[in-house]
Amino acid sequence: MTVSTEASVAVLPPGGPATSDGPIPAARRGPGARAALLLVEAAVAFAAALVLPLLARGFRLNPLDRIAQVSGLAAIQLRFALLGLLLVAAVGVALRFRKGRHFDLSARIAAAGIAGLASGFVAAGAVVALHGTPWPMFGLNGDSGRIVEWAHAVANGRPSGSPVYPPAPLYTLGYYAEFFRGGNTAYAFKDLQILGAAAFGPLVYLCWRMLLSPVRALAFGVAPAFALIDAYKPYSQTVLVLLVPVLVALVVCLGRSARQDWRPLLLKGAGFGALLGLLFLTYSGWFLWSAAGVFFAAALYFPWRAGRAGRLKGAGFLAATLAAFLVVAGRYLMVMLTEGQSTKDYNFRFDNFTDPAYYLMWRTDMPGKVGEWPPPGEYGGVGLFALVTFVCLGAAIWLGLRKPMIVTIAAMFISAWVMRMYIASHMYETQTVQLYTRTNNQLLYCGLLLCALVAHLVSQRIAARRAEQPGDGASTPAVRGLPAREGAVIGTLCALLLLLGTVSSAMSDRYMPAKENTYRILPWVSHTITEKDGSCPKYAPGGTCSKDGDQSWLDFIR
After folding, report:
1. pLDDT one-digit tens code per residue, 277-306
2. Is 80 exceeded by the pLDDT of residue 558?
3. Distance of CA 360 to the CA centre of its chain
4. Do 221 and 449 meet the contact criterion of CB atoms below 8 Å apart?
5. Region class of 473: left (phi > 0), else alpha (psi between -120 and 50), else beta
6. What is the CA 135 to chain-centroid distance, rounded?
7. Phi, psi for 382 (deg, rounded to 5)
8. Which SS3 state, helix, strand or coil, does residue 303 take?
9. What secondary structure does DSSP assign to 397-444, as a single string?
10. Closest to 10 in 3D by CA, of 257, 261, 212, 302
């Protein structure tokens, strides 16, 4: 079988990132114009991500009261909906104004804005949850306490408590605290938890823009990622949802390397290497689960048949990528290779006692009230969600067998599955966990992406058939009675606005303070720790607090 190196979408064209969902004229802009438009999208996305957290700072409520929490979530949802509807309305107005000349630009801005608003919703939820306390979620307990301590150490020139822990979050926190919090890494960590959650949507959106046009990036890249958004340690999940599109784009560029000039090819390779190095420094675990699948995809799409010159360009692209990666993260990679093998994880958590083939929900070490688990399924113990995921995986491979995007994501899914079973199969013998349950997140994300990309591939076929039909040049013709593209764009934006608003509310609610064995205990503890000046947080239960805060969470893990 001859493998095509053509991507299923407009991936990294010679002038820059993929263009809008609109007609071909948008793609005829020069590289400078396309770069300027992408900068506009980035500015809109990041600005939108900050709006809701800033508005939430003005709420007056007791975050430990459940009615206040519900009111806070409703207040955020109301503002999210109104702002999102304004963006969608602007798209509708642009369709009517000057014969739709600015429709594509408005759709581009709306997609970027909704991506930012969605993660800003979760950040605003964290603002509400931590209202009245300067401490980060969980205060100085657990992972939060260790991160705060290690960040303070590295900011003062001392080694952290763990050489294998990703250094980027520690240095970022340490230096942020020095500049903005007078060296108080604990109080600074609260800021970065909120800012990290807010940046999630814009970062994911911009990475998927390397592969997909604006509305498609929002629908098929950003929406699946929100199943994983996290306000406690936002950097680990953010790395996963960024790594997938970056690796896919890398494979696509490799497949096209034989047709590119040397200078842009090497610059792209160096750019990919530097970006992957930064992600590796931020959280390295996903690289382990993904490595086998990415190597398979890279070998499959290497320009083997492009002649000696083509193969040389492919090798040069990979060499530039590797060199830049080693420049950025080579030292940490050596630490992981030498000391990572001796680091053992002996902490058996809730998910280590469940069926290893079940990955659809990760309950963490604070699972809450759990009955029968995994939940009983309709088909041989397997639920409908799992069935749909596997069917979509097969359908995506069927429809996109020759497309690097589909093959790479499917390979990453299979790679994580194999690594998961390998480590779990040795768990009894070694009495170690090695964090294999973290593969839940990668399997879920890749599975959701493949489900979304089935719709993407089908819509592409519809668009191709539309392009074959003659039009009057004023608008996009319909296909056998289907409405024109403009209506599909507006309808998709409306649906995604409601979907992301609902998901963001649910993900915010999981961090509303409560004294129970779930992640709700994290902000609860933050309200029970004595502040630096000796006073209690404003809403401390009963007006009492202590140096270490409420330690009842220890009873949950015993």
Report:
1. 999 999 999 999 999 999 999 999 999 999
2. no
3. 17
4. yes
5. left
6. 25
7. -100, 130
8. coil
9. HHHTTT-HHHHHHHHHHHHHHHHHHHHHHTHHHHT--TTGGGHHHHHH
10. 212
Report d(CA 34, CA 360) in Å as an integer. Answer: 38
Q: 188, 180 in Cβ contact below 8 A? A: yes
pLDDT band for position 376 (cuts 50, 70, 90): confident
- Structure-model confidence comparison of residues 57 and 375, the more confident one: 57
Is residue 505 within 8 A of residue 74, CB to CB? The reply is no
Please give the Cα distance from 241 to 243 (Å, whole number).
6
Q: How far apart are CA 114 and CA 81, in angstroms?
A: 10
DSSP E strand stretches across 195-348: none
Integer Cα distance of 329 and 254 in angstroms: 21
Which of 487, 489, 480, 486 shows the shortest CA–CA distance to 462? 480
| Confidence grade of residue 20 (pLDDT, cut at 50, 70, 90) | very low
Distance CA 218, CA 496 (A): 8
Q: CB atoms < 10 A from the CB of 542, how many?
A: 7
Per residue in 219-252, pLDDT tens? 999 999 999 999 999 999 999 999 999 999 999 9
